Amino acid sequence: MLLHRVLPFAKRLLAETVLPGETVVDATAGNGNDTEFLAKLVGNEGSVIAFDIQQAALDKTADRLGDLHHNVKLILDSHANVDRYVDKPIGGAMFNLGYLPYSEDMSVVTKPESTIEAIHKLLGLVKKGGIITISVYDGHQGGAEERDALLVYVKSLHQSDVHVIRYELLNQRNNPPFLIAIEKVKDFVEVSQVNNSEQ
């Protein structure tokens, strides 16, 4: 199949750009699917920094990782604070926006302010040629606002610094997710400020 669904396509992009031994970031650990994928991708010599604001998500991620846990650091904090935990170049990053799948409390959702701040900081950390993938779910309360703010932000990024794509399957029903992928094309990108008026 050439036209993958959103999540497999996101993984395909990262598999083509992340190298064994690199550090990568899972900005939304959730149930640990992406964290597990990234841990396998970077191998024993690499490392994964995984964030979530819910301890239940980190517990589920830890259970899923099993023997892969040795190269994963689970952080109970907002991904907006990524720069407090990562101070070296990374090979790539993944976001899965929305709420924790199968959670009893669907009121805990990602927010546009923290999502954009995290992406902004990660752009300063990711290597040239590195990819940040953002799977956007907008069918829940607050999802449309996060989607719109995110699209305004990524469209404002300069084309000489990054390439941005939007990937989606147009004939899917019930608010299917779409993917935003950002490829860094310069060694240095000036990302010192976020325009809060656009969030």
From TrEMBL:
Keyword terms of this UniProt record: Methyltransferase, Transferase
Gene3D superfamilies according to UniProt: Vaccinia Virus protein VP39 (3.40.50.150)
GO molecular function, a single term: methyltransferase activity
InterPro entries linked to this entry: MnmM_MeTrfase, SAM-dependent_MTases_sf
Coiled coil: none
CDD domains the UniProt entry points to: AdoMet_MTases
Endpoints of the signal sequence: none
Biological processes annotated in GO: methylation
Protein name as annotated: Class I SAM-dependent methyltransferase
Organism: Sporosarcina oncorhynchi
